[in-house]
């Protein structure tokens, strides 16, 4: 195999190459061959890219932060046993937002002590489970605190408080979370009462503050501002006698490049900016350095994955556009229809061919808006071509649905020329598993 070049290093996984046949190769595996072997649509995760992202977060914190630190993988981006196990091998803990994500992390071998449970409407069962496995519960509201108080009667529970800092970022409206009008967290005017409640409730061990201001952010300053703002409360917590109050969790949110024009900061720049803000603020306020936590999701798993599809039908509307249809769509990637998200694509079997056609890539769902890419340049696609979309690791599989009763795709992790299944494709039995046909309706 003659390895040549990758189509665009900034959009493909790190290990991507083009072989002598003009096929895309990821993790040493021919993507066309993977599609043939495992079927399409297929999520293909490049182990190298995922490990490299984890390494960059961990090393940047070590380089720029003189205090203790911990990176948590925001598993909402993609909760999967193998992915949780892999990031944990790289030294990461887990941010979970449901008992399902908590259970996945635990079964992947992540100790409860390295799991933080979020959620704006946790059930009592979720809180009790988190307490049982010694996870930290991130209290989002007063109901959480009341439930925690009841759950902690036997054993103390570690509690972090989520704050809505009133700091905004420029991203899609649906994925902003730091502004005052957000469903998440305690607004600042309540924080004094929350800390006083925790000081008066010794079975709840208040460990610190959390804020997350939004996702797919290309800005640096608001993330530093959040860290500074939260630190102002640490002296107040100390004055209230909260002796274990020493963790500052700045959330996640770093954006990634989906299309050529995207220009996100690097992981190192993001971490450096936050670390410097924390160190300066601690010096100015004569505070001890807290344990610094961050919770990236998209920037870890997003760039590591591509989705492979098979091209099917074509429709040309003369003078308007050409639609080409693939065998997946909004059910395996709901981001374009939900957020107007944009992606980049290639034909994995024709990487050296000229991109001489402008086409719109439609999914196979009964929905006009089921379009994954609009007016993109590709070699003129033909039935049977293997179309790949880049940067699909975050919020694709984790938000996938069975709309139109399509089974959700399989996923493989690739590296060193090997591929391993990390998610089996759903079949017709899976789709019908939960349906019940009452006796009186049977004919
Ligand atoms: C509380 C919390 N932490 C972390 C994240 C991860 O964000 P991202 O995937 O943008 O890094 C999110 C999602 O936006 C979140 O809600
Ligand atoms: N699902 C969103 C991100 C949500 C982040 C979770 N708070 C996306 O695809 O961009």
From TrEMBL:
<feature type="binding site">
    <location>
        <position position="335"/>
    </location>
    <ligand>
        <name>substrate</name>
    </ligand>
</feature>
<keyword id="KW-0028">Amino-acid biosynthesis</keyword>
<dbReference type="GO" id="GO:0030170">
    <property type="term" value="F:pyridoxal phosphate binding"/>
</dbReference>
<feature type="binding site">
    <location>
        <position position="298"/>
    </location>
    <ligand>
        <name>substrate</name>
    </ligand>
</feature>
<feature type="domain" description="Orn/DAP/Arg decarboxylase 2 N-terminal">
    <location>
        <begin position="56"/>
        <end position="301"/>
    </location>
</feature>
<feature type="active site" description="Proton donor">
    <location>
        <position position="366"/>
    </location>
</feature>
<keyword id="KW-0456">Lyase</keyword>
<feature type="binding site">
    <location>
        <position position="367"/>
    </location>
    <ligand>
        <name>substrate</name>
    </ligand>
</feature>
<comment type="function">
    <text>Specifically catalyzes the decarboxylation of meso-diaminopimelate (meso-DAP) to L-lysine.</text>
</comment>
<dbReference type="InterPro" id="IPR000183">
    <property type="entry name" value="Orn/DAP/Arg_de-COase"/>
</dbReference>
<comment type="subunit">
    <text>Homodimer.</text>
</comment>
<keyword id="KW-0210">Decarboxylase</keyword>
<dbReference type="Pfam" id="PF02784">
    <property type="entry name" value="Orn_Arg_deC_N"/>
</dbReference>
<comment type="similarity">
    <text>Belongs to the Orn/Lys/Arg decarboxylase class-II family. LysA subfamily.</text>
</comment>
<dbReference type="InterPro" id="IPR029066">
    <property type="entry name" value="PLP-binding_barrel"/>
</dbReference>
<dbReference type="InterPro" id="IPR009006">
    <property type="entry name" value="Ala_racemase/Decarboxylase_C"/>
</dbReference>
<feature type="binding site">
    <location>
        <position position="253"/>
    </location>
    <ligand>
        <name>pyridoxal 5'-phosphate</name>
    </ligand>
</feature>
<dbReference type="InterPro" id="IPR022644">
    <property type="entry name" value="De-COase2_N"/>
</dbReference>
<protein>
    <recommendedName>
        <fullName>Diaminopimelate decarboxylase</fullName>
        <ecNumber>4.1.1.20</ecNumber>
    </recommendedName>
</protein>
<dbReference type="GO" id="GO:0008836">
    <property type="term" value="F:diaminopimelate decarboxylase activity"/>
</dbReference>
<dbReference type="GO" id="GO:0009089">
    <property type="term" value="P:lysine biosynthetic process via diaminopimelate"/>
</dbReference>
<comment type="pathway">
    <text>Amino-acid biosynthesis; L-lysine biosynthesis via DAP pathway; L-lysine from DL-2,6-diaminopimelate: step 1/1.</text>
</comment>
<keyword id="KW-0457">Lysine biosynthesis</keyword>
<feature type="binding site">
    <location>
        <position position="339"/>
    </location>
    <ligand>
        <name>substrate</name>
    </ligand>
</feature>
<feature type="modified residue" description="N6-(pyridoxal phosphate)lysine">
    <location>
        <position position="76"/>
    </location>
</feature>
<dbReference type="InterPro" id="IPR002986">
    <property type="entry name" value="DAP_deCOOHase_LysA"/>
</dbReference>
<feature type="binding site">
    <location>
        <position position="395"/>
    </location>
    <ligand>
        <name>substrate</name>
    </ligand>
</feature>
<feature type="binding site">
    <location>
        <begin position="295"/>
        <end position="298"/>
    </location>
    <ligand>
        <name>pyridoxal 5'-phosphate</name>
    </ligand>
</feature>
<keyword id="KW-0663">Pyridoxal phosphate</keyword>
<feature type="binding site">
    <location>
        <position position="395"/>
    </location>
    <ligand>
        <name>pyridoxal 5'-phosphate</name>
    </ligand>
</feature>
């Amino acid at each position: 195999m003659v390895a040549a070049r990758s189509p665009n290093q900034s959009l493909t996984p790190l290990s991507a190459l083009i072989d002598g046949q003009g096929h895309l190769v990821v993790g040493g595996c021919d993507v066309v061959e993977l599609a043939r072997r495992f079927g399409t649509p297929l999520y293909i995760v490049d182990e190298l890219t995922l490990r490299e992202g984890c390494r960059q977060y961990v090393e940047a914190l070590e380089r720029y932060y003189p205090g203790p630190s911990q990176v948590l993988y925001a598993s909402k981006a993609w909760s999967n046993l193998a992915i949780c196990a892999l990031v944990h091998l790289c030294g990461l803990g887990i941010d979970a937002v449901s008992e399902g994500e908590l259970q996945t992390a635990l079964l992947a071998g992540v100790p409860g002590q390295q799991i933080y449970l979020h959620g704006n409407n946790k059930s009592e069962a979720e809180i009790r489970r988190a307490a049982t496995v010694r996870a930290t519960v991130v209290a989002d509201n007063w109901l959480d605190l009341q439930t925690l108080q009841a759950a902690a009667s036997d054993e103390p529970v570690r509690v972090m408080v989520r704050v809505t800092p009133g700091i905004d970022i420029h991203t899609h409206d649906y994925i902003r979370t730091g502004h005052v009008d957000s469903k998440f967290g305690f607004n600042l005017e309540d924080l004094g009462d929350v800390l006083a409640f925790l000081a008066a409730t010794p079975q709840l061990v208040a460990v610190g503050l959390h804020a997350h201001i939004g996702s797919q952010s290309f800005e640096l300053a608001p993330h530093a501002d959040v860290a500074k703002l939260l630190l102002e409360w640490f002296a107040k917590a100390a004055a209230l006698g909260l002796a274990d109050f020493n963790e500052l969790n700045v959330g996640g949110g770093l954006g990634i490049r989906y299309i050529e024009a995207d220009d996100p900061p690097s992981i190192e720049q993001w971490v450096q900016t936050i670390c410097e803000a924390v160190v300066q603020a601690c010096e100015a306020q004569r505070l001890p350095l807290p344990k610094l936590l961050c919770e990236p999701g998209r920037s870890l798993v997003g760039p590591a994955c591509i989705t492979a599809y098979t091209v099917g039908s074509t429709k040309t509307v003369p003078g308007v556009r050409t639609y080409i249809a693939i065998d997946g769509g909004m059910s395996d990637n709901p981001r374009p229809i939900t957020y107007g998200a944009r992606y980049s694509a290639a034909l994995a079997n024709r990487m050296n061919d000229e991109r001489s056609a402008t086409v719109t890539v439609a999914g196979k769902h009964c929905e006009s808006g089921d379009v994954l890419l609009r007016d993109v340049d590709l070699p003129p696609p033909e039935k049977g071509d293997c179309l790949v979309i880049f940067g699909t690791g975050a919020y694709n599989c984790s938000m996938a649905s069975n709309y139109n009763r399509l089974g959700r795709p399989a996923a493989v992790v690739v590296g060193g020329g090997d591929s391993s299944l990390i998610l089996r494709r759903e079949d017709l039995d899976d789709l019908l598993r939960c349906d019940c046909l009452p006796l009186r309706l049977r004919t």
